[in-house]
Design goal:
Elements: H1 4-14, E1 21-23, H2 28-33, H3 37-46, E2 49-51, H4 60-70, H5 84-87, H6 90-111, H7 116-127, H8 134-191
Antiparallel strand pairs: 1-2
Length: 192
C-alpha cells in the first residue's frame, strides 16, 4: 500500500524530514483515507502518525579530542596540513605584539611614567623590532628611567660643584682685592 503522499504531508505539517515520520502499521487503512493536512493533523494528534525523536549525536569524543589537543597531543608533523605561516601567520603575531607594546607605551605616557621624547624613541624602537615582548620593553623602560635619573643626579652634582667653586673663587678674589686695597692704602699713607 502506497502512503508516500501521507508521509510527505505529515513531514510538511510537522516541519521535519520524511525519515522522521512513523506510520502505525495497525492503522494503515485510516492513514490511507487521510488526504488533507487537516486529516494528517488529526492522525498526529491521535498518535497514529508519530514524529520520531532526534537521534543523539554525542560530542563527548570530540570534547576529549579537543582537551587532548590543548595539551599538545595529536599535533605532530603528521597531523599538520598547512605551512607554519598558514597555521599561525607571522604578520598576525607581529600585529598582536605591536598592539601590546604600543598600548603599554600609551598607558605609561598618560600616567606620566615616561615623557613624550622617551615615548617617541621607544615607539620607533618597537617598530624596529627591538623588543621581543612586553617584559623586555618594561625592563628597557626601567633601565632608561634609572639611567636618566642617574645622569640627572650627576648633572646636579656637577652644577653644585661648579656653583661651589665659583663662590669660592669669588670669595678668594674679594679677599685678594681687599688685601691689595689695604696694601695700596698703606703705601698711600706712607707716601704722604
Amino acid at each position: 500500500m502506497n502512503l508516500r503522499m501521507q508521509k510527505r504531508l505529515a513531514s510538511n505539517v510537522a516541519g521535519v524530514g520524511k525519515r522522521k515520520i512513523w506510520l502505525d502499521p495497525a492503522e494503515i487503512a485510516e492513514i490511507k483515507n487521510a488526504n488533507s493536512r487537516e486529516g494528517i493533523r488529526k492522525l498526529i494528534k491521535d498518535g497514529h502518525i508519530v514524529i520520531k525523536p532526534q537521534v543523539v549525536h554525542s560530542r563527548a569524543r570530540h570534547r576529549m579530542l579537543v582537551e587532548a589537543k590543548r595539551k599538545g597531543r595529536h599535533m605532530g608533523f603528521g597531523k599538520r596540513k598547512g605551512t607554519r605561516n598558514a597555521r599561525m601567520p607571522t604578520k598576525l603575531l607581529w600585529v598582536r605584539r605591536q598592539r601590546v607594546l604600543r598600548r603599554l607605551l600609551r598607558k605609561y605616557r598618560e600616567q606620566g611614567k615616561i615623557d613624550k621624547h622617551l615615548y617617541h624613541e621607544l615607539y620607533m624602537k618597537s617598530k624596529g623590532n627591538v623588543f621581543k615582548n612586553k617584559r623586555v620593553l618594561m625592563e628597557h623602560i626601567f633601565k632608561a628611567k634609572a639611567e636618566k635619573a642617574r645622569t640627572k643626579v650627576l648633572a646636579d652634582q656637577l652644577e653644585a660643584r661648579k656653583q661651589k667653586s665659583k663662590a669660592t673663587r669669588e670669595r678668594r678674589m674679594a679677599r685678594v682685592a681687599e688685601k691689595r686695597a689695604a696694601v695700596l692704602a698703606v703705601e698711600h699713607e706712607a707716601a704722604k
